[in-house]
Amino acid sequence: MTMLALIIDDDPDRIEEIQFHLKNIGNWQVATSSYAESEQKLKDSRTLRVAFLGYCKDTQQFEQSIQVIKQRDADLPIVAVFDQKPDTESIAPFHELCCSIINRPLHPEQLQQTLTEVNTWRRRRRQTQPRRPLELFRSLSGSSEAVNGITKLIYRVAPTDATVLVTGPSGTGKEVVARKIHYFSARRDKPFV
Fold it and tell me: How far apart are CA 119 and CA 3, in angstroms?
């Protein structure tokens, strides 16, 4: 499976170096952008797996780009790329915003380790996010005359207190019908039995 990485940087040498290593590591498709064009690139790109940001002298622009990425997709891992090892104090604010910080010159092992960190970060984010409640069997698919007829019957019987017996061969959707009746009934908030 091909994965898409976006490199946002104004330094063509740094872009080329990151791009070279990503393409040699595995199935990475790479999109590049300057800082000025990055907002448009982010809007166009829905399948990003990671964003690499080359550190620019304009700290405000660097931070603003991180914020734009986070607004677009809070779960998109960001890797900050520095030309030299910065002092710990100057990069402290970026540790919370970026999932990893790497320094040039890049080495394949270093980048591979970073991508492993990115995957771990993504996995942790997915595990800690509240999951949407699972709502099973609420919709019948299709628009045939038979399905429309069943749907009308469901809407007719659901508001009543009548006992309904749903019959049919295995795999024909009896439970789907029963759950849909329950969903549209006054007992909707009570357990489905």
Answer: 12
Residue keyed to tokens 């790109």: 45
Given 3-state DSSP classes, what are the helix, strand and coil percentages for the chain, each rounded to the nearest 5? 45, 15, 40
3-state secondary structure of 123: helix
Please, is 106 exposed, middle or buried when counting C-beta atoms within 10 Å of its C-beta (0-12, 13-18, 19+)? Answer: middle
Instruction: Give the domain-ending residue among 77, 99, 128.
Output: 128
Q: What is the mean pLDDT of each run of 10 residues along the chain (193 residues)?
A: 83 90 84 82 74 81 83 85 70 75 88 89 76 55 81 87 89 86 82 79
- Whole-angstrom CA distances from 41 to 5, 20, 27, 141, 153 are 11, 20, 20, 37, 50
Q: Is 138 helix (H, G, I), strand (E, B) or coil?
A: coil
For 174, phi and psi rounded to 5 degrees?
-60, -45
26 and 119 co-located in one domain: yes
Residue 131: CA count within 13 A, CB half-sphere? 5
Question: Is 101 found in the same domain as 14?
Answer: yes
